[in-house]
Amino acid sequence: MDTNKSSSRLLVVDDDESFLASMRRTFRGHFELTTTNDPVQAIKIFELQGPFAVVISDFQMPFMNGIQLFSRIVSINKHAQRIMLTGHADLQMAIDAVNHGKITAFLTKPTPAASIRSVVLDAIRAYNQSLDRADQELEPSITSIRQQEKLRASELASPLTLKEMEILALLAKGYSNEEISSELNITVGTAKSHLNNLFCKMDVNSRAKVVAKAIELGIIMQSSN
User: Fold this and answer.
1) How much is the pLDDT for 182?
2) CA 41, 18, 44 angle in degrees (round to 5)?
3) Per the structure, how many domains does the chain have?
4) What's the domain range around 201?
5) Residue 149's Cα: distance from chain center in Å?
6) What is the pLDDT of residues 116-169, one digit of tens each?
7) What's the angle, vertex CA 154, arms to CA 205 and CA 225, rounded to 5?
8) Are 189 and 113 in the same domain?
9) Long-range contacts of 126-135 (CB under 8 A, 24+ apart)
10) Is the full-model pTM beyond 0.85?
11) 124 lies in the same domain as 20
């Protein structure tokens, strides 16, 4: 599941089949909806079939209550919005839902269909806004890493001579010193001298490592052969 992908999909969890049927009628033609009467199954659906922008759950269900379900949902995707829709509301439940389930909204049954759709629409907006903020926070760090990599490569590549760059390219193709000597029309001793210079400039001690480091820094491209 890509937890950073925009979505308008809903997952509704309730052990009351008649309520799930009413939710399908409420959201038909408005949102893409998946329903289940099993909170354990809901977690599997959320993980394998997501992303879901909004999860709506009852409180009292077999095996796991709605607050416990929401706690699991948060651990999988913190961006997903959580709405508690229950006919068994009390103050302590509401407090626990906020503190442990980190819910977006708390609704009591029955709630008019138009009101539910309005709350869900606001939750979908909140979900996508949360993704946008996460992307904005991530982008500077990615840019900084790329800039640092380019800087490292430029600082390392600039002292290399043209002949050393040619030898690097041949090393990446698996050429021996003798083959490099023949290809570049230089002596084997000169080829070895250039190779030793490469080892020093790139702070490595083997042919394999000098090639690996050059590929890592983008000085040469990895051979497809």
Assistant:
1) 92
2) 10
3) 2
4) 159-216
5) 22
6) 999 999 999 999 888 877 666 555 554 555 555 554 555 554 467 888 888 888
7) 60
8) no
9) 126/81, 127/6, 127/7, 127/53, 127/54, 127/79, 127/80, 127/81, 128/6, 128/7, 128/53, 130/78, 130/79, 131/4, 131/5, 131/6, 131/79, 134/4, 134/79, 135/4
10) no
11) yes
At 8 the three-state DSSP class reads coil
pLDDT score of 212: 84
- Residues 184-205 as b or e (16 or more Cβ within 10 Å = b): bebeeebbeebbebbeeebebe
Is residue 123 a part of any domain in this protein?
Answer: yes
In a domain, 147, yes or no: no
Q: Name the residue with tokens 């607050």.
A: 67
Provide the pLDDT for residue 214. Answer: 80
Dump pLDDT digits (tens) for 6-32: 578 999 999 999 999 999 999 998 999
